[in-house]
Amino acid sequence: MFPEVFSSAADPIPPAGLALLEGGADLMIVVIVAYSVVNFVIQSIIQPKLVADAVNISLSVTFLSLVFWTFVIGPVGAILAVPLTLLGKSLLFDVDQDTRWMSGLLEGGSAPPEVEPETSPGDAPAAAG
């Protein structure tokens, strides 16, 4: 399947072993803690934000889809959460003009700016006087 997802627990073993040989148990613990912190930040904060930006859905929808699809179909749902959410979005919201506004609820970012009506110079009110 996806070795990079399932091997994250085994990844620090080689550098931790090298740190144990080079600097003892203290250095090994520092290496394991540093690896765990960096791995957590990348997989839990940076990667979901990049995925959400790439597929144009908000970060909260990405997280909620992960929880929902994992609950519905188990561990496979965690892997397929974003593709299944995009499939549902395209089938339910993007096909009809009447439901396209709901698609905007799933997308990240701010609302588009409102356009003010333009006035021509002849439409300006006359000065009282």
From TrEMBL:
Region of interest called Disordered, as start-end residue ranges on this chain: 104-129
Mode of membrane association: Multi-pass membrane protein
Superkingdom is Bacteria
| One Pfam short name | AI-2E_transport
Location of the protein in the cell? Membrane
Which parts of the chain span the membrane according to its record? 27-46, 66-87
Annotated protein name in UniProt: Uncharacterized protein DUF20
> What lineage does UniProt assign to this protein's organism?
Bacteria, Bacillati, Actinomycetota, Actinomycetes, Micromonosporales
